[in-house]
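pasting for the record
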Amino acid sequence: MGNEELNKYIIQLHSPDSQFRREAAEMLGELGGNAAITPLVRLIRDNNKGVQQASIDSLIKIRGKDTIRNIIPLLTDEDAAVRNIAIEILQQIGNDDIWAIIKELKNINNDVKKFAADMLGSLSNREAVEPLIEAVSDTDPNVRASAVVSLGLLKDKRALYVLINSLNDEEWIRFSAIEALAEMGDKSAVGPLLNALNTANQLIISAVIESLGHLKDPQSAKPLLKYIKSTNKNIRNLVLKALDEIFEENEITYTDVDRDELFVFLKDALDDDDPVIQDCAVRWLTRLKDARGIEPLLRLATKTSWDFPDRLNLIAKALVAIGNIPILLNKLRDSDKKGRLIIIKAFGEFRDPSVTLRLQSVFSRADEEERFIIVSAAGKIGTDEAVEILTKALHDSNGHVRREAASYLGRLKEKKGVHILLSIFEGDHYHDVRETAMKALANIGTDEVFENFIKFLSSTSPEIRELAIEGLRIMQRPEGIENIQGVLNDPNWRVRKVAVNALSQFNGEGIIESLINAMSDENEHVRLAAVQSMARFSGEKVVKSIIAALNDRDIWVRFQVAETLGIMREKSAIDSLIKKLNDDDPVKIAAAKALGEIGDRGALGALELLKKNSNLDISNAAAIAIEHIQNK
């Protein structure tokens, strides 16, 4: 039957209908067999692109030595498109018979030799290394260039010496050798590459500089620095990028470097049109730590849009590395707004009294944006003087500034701000500021804070009561449980829901009972939260309560209960879940999914019936559940 079917599709390849030919080509790929190879190879020349692609895909599926030997002759085809298809196929299946391709390195046709050399690199097969080394001596320069490139891709040390020798070959082969040596990543190539810089050929010099950067060997630095005075801007920029790569992973020393020359070079690079070059220069000024870099860095900051925060952060990092606080303090007075903001941002990394004193004096006359950055800097500094800025900022007219100050006081667990934070918590105009104040207070976590959270549970504002519950949850004091349980009778359902979620984060007597009671709440959102919370606990009482909730009057509570029982893989719920296959459509789907997760074969009969449902979503859910059960 197999041969008959194979022959049927081989005959179908001759159909005048392109759809039939395409279908036949696809089927031959599925069936396989050497008999299909030659007909499929002929089909590569089909005028219909769909048929042609089907033949390519099928040949790749069939693979094997016979396929390779039938494809190789196409490398000499007069049609360039056919040659390219042959290369595409061989690049994917060539390892099935690597020596058939290696053999083509001796072909009398130079183009075929080049194609073979190219493919051997992409196949990543080390058996090709020695034959490719031999091909580097080929009489045809195109073959030599392809062999060099492929040896670079194979990254085998056996090829190192021939790649180094190729640095003396014709120009474009030298380019290939330079790139191949960088690709190999062997630092023993650094010396020969440095020697290759002794040429008047600017393109070769550029290629060598790039490769030295990729190799990241510090011994390249001194020779490369000679080129910072080059009249060729492209070479200067390449040197900067190469040095940036080299010292990304290595410590820099300036023993043999003229720092003045280097600084002038970097200062000019900051004015380059290419942002990549500007960033390299900023990183180099960070390494150089020369105070003369402060002014040009601030000029660059002034020209940089706020849309490029990474660049501005890079500049701030450079100012920190330079670390000349007196100059920065002077520049804070003289700079424009953007310069001031960058300096203030940098100040966040210094714990110097003169910095915090200046920030204190600047704060009162700064605009909203500057006050926000000052607060961030003070929060990072964290000294007593910085805390004074933060507590003062809690009275700021701008909500963003108040929120930032509250956040940092919480991170610092600073008790000095508790009274003001309590005032903000209760009376600020903005919810996000009140919420941040609550989190800060909870992190500070004093007895005073705890007692006030308890007091706020009786606030006339539902929002304050919600936030107070959250605060108690964060503090995780066991004595807070009883107070949260008391809020389960709150007249506002949102408050009750927050209380339910908070209780689930505690461990203690009476919590499960409280959550069970909440599952009978008059509001469906509270009941839903209670179901989700109960899933975090275990025990027979918990399971029975969740199963009972399958009969809740709200469809979405029932839906959540079914999903929860599936997640719990609760076998005692199987009968109840089977009954829910007759519920509303969303519940049917959730129940089917849950039965699939539980994996009990006793549910298969009910699921087979559900699979016949006219609703596609329901039938699909049943089919997936059946598959899950059968695969367990």
